[in-house]
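Amino acid chain:
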Amino acid sequence: MPAFLSKHSSILIIDDDINLIRMLSEILKDFGRILFANSGEMGLEVARQQKPSLILLDVAMTPMDGYEVCRRLRDDEVTRNIAIIFVTANTGMDSEIACLDAGAVDFICKPLNPLVVQARVRTHLRLIHDSASLELLAQRDALTGLYNRGYFDKAIDVEFKRLQRHQLPLGIALVDIDHFKNYNDTYGHIAGDIALRAVAEALQLATKRPGELVARYGGEEFVVLLPQVDASVLAQYGQLICDAVRALQIPHQASSCAAHITISVGLSIEIPHAESSPKDCIERADRALYHAKESGRNRYHIFSDS
């Protein structure tokens, strides 16, 4: 079975005709999880809660017709990107144009032809799957597989606002591989890439709490988002990742602070407020990282105003 036809796909059928719901459910039973709603209001609620891969939406419903349901789906931030296929008995050109103008990606005509229904749904599930795969690739660093800086910048902005609303702390860790230029000069860039991947994996394995996120920030630098931590947990995390990288025991004869690859870590923590920004959080972690390097590297330091 193709990857886009799986239990991870879900199709929501919105129609006030229960017989049509049964018919479509039978036709599409092998295409993923089938959801249904027999009114526009119910369909909007199910779409918000379940976030289906695809919606099959009847045009001629009462009291809320398919065009109005489609408009509301498109106006809702939660559901606006869900693909919608209209199901309609009107095969005229004006109707087809109206369906597409309303925001649908396609339409299926009644009476239903099972092979046509399957072909159109299959096509759009494939497009949805391919689009999601491309989006995932765009979020990842090609070398390490971690999230990239662009994704991190968006993630910290969202998390900063969320924690500001709830007045909860946000921790940041900036991680730099010590003397990495010397490592590349000594062992070569292929070995450097292998070392980067190993450090990235060690950071990822050490970062396990819900909401935590590791990203490659650029070159030999990584950044970690640490929501809802206190100073004690932050210090434990700094020690944990330093130990995890030391435990790799990757030889580094060109390092002045150890015989193997080590990292320096800058940590910051604050409760976001109206006068601060995600950039301020990063800058504090960066100042802490500078202090860790000035103190001899191969260690972590937590930012303090003093």
In short: The first helix runs from residue 18 to 27. Strands lie at 10-14, 33-37, 54-58, 83-88, 106-109, 170-177, 213-218, 221-227, 263-270, 300-302. The chain has a mean pLDDT of 91.
